[in-house]
Structures are given as C-alpha cells and as structure tokens.
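Researcher: Structure prediction, please.
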Amino acid sequence: MELENLSRVLTPRQENKVRVTCDECGVDFEALNLARWTRRRCDTCIAKMNAEEEAERQEQAREMAEHDQARRIHAARIPAFWKDTTFASSDAGINKGAFVRCRKYAETFNPQTSPSLFLYSEKHGTGKTHLAVCIANHVLHEKKCRVRYQKARDLMLDIRRTYSDKSEGDEADILDTVLAFDLLVLDDVGIGRPSEWLTDTYWTVFDRRLEAGLPVVVTANCPLSGVEGADNLGDRIGFGAAGRLRKMCGENVIEFKGKDLR
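Model: Predicted structure follows.
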C-alpha cells in the first residue's frame, strides 16, 4: 500500500495534466497542470528558443573573442610592413636550420614554460628580423597570446621621453609594459653607443622578465657571449643584462649565416 501511494506521488496522474495552446505557434499540447506556472510553450517552440539563445550566446562569445584579438593586434605594434609575414608565406629554404627551429619555437610556445630565444649574426640582412616577426605573428594569431614587437632602440627612446616635463607617464610606466605581454620581441638589441643609463635600463628589462618567468625573443648583430676581448652583447648592453638574457635563453641561441638577403 505504501509503494502504491509513493508511485502516485512520483508519477503525475492523467488528471494533473491540462491542454494548453502554445503562445508561440498556436498548437495545442499537453502540459503538467501547475496553475499559473503551467508552461505556455510547446516542446518544439521551447527547443527552438533554446537553440536561438545558444546561437546568440555563441555569437556574443565570437564577437568578444574578435574584440579581444583586435586589442591584442593593436597592442602588438607589429609594423604594417611585417603584418602578413608568417612561416607559411616565407621561403623555408633560406637559413633552413634557423627557419625550422624558429617555427618549432612558435608552434610549441607557452608563456609559462617556453624559454627565451636569441637570434644573431655578425652580418646584416640574414633574416633575423624576418623570422622574429614570423614568431610574433604566429604566437599572436595562432596562439592568441599577448605579444609586443619593438625595436630595442625605440623602447629606449620611449623611456627617455618620459623624462620630458610634457610627458604624461614616467619611466616606471614604460618598464611595467614589459610585464604586460606573454612574449616580448626586441629587435636589434645592442644598437647604439653604450652608456650607464642604457646598461641599467637593459638590466631592468631583462631582470623583470626573468623574475616573472616571461620569455623574450631577441635579435642582435653580435654573439650573446664569446671569447674575452671579442665583440659580444655584454660589451653593448652590460654584462649584467647579457647574463640575465643568457640565463633565460639557455641553449636557445641561433646563429644566422649566409649572404645579405636584402
């Protein structure tokens, strides 16, 4: 007897249902009688409404993703000349070994685990900037990561401009931006006459990236380190800064050889 009563509670009886006309399509359907809470839409219209709401949510998510990506592209500052430069659009036969290593670095990039990368040659026009930009574009567009590409000299100039009385920011604001990106690509590091201010600033940039565990891709026209007395990056940006960069790169150093491609 108790099981029968329990069955009556758990299973709606026929007299607990009512015929309702759908507010959307006008078709009659049977619904559980819940007085004023009785549903007013048929199964077909409810399924259609759910599908439309899901499509709207997906569209909103797509628009938000496009908006976020547009902001990342703007913040990346990749020059118009380089914006379409990718591994797919480049000749893999030029500096083939460097091409393969740079592409693998980009394809496996992870801001939490990827080391830094140093690209150098003692000649101009060997393709360092080209492949550095390929990395930047791949990480930006395929990985959807926050990337900043900048000539090293321009970064130094941006910092110097903060010394002007008319500047709205300060040096700390500019240096804080080096932590705002998953990947920082600094092109032509070590160009210009070294000074105490320059070496201190490079030290700060690389020290902050090192402590935050954030990678950099650096191009230069001299080795990161070398035999004593030979031209190397430490002579140009300070051995403290070069030492931090060396620690971040480890074995990820690529020398570009060959003729000028320009």
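Model: The longest strand covers residues 17-21.
Researcher: Thanks, that helps.
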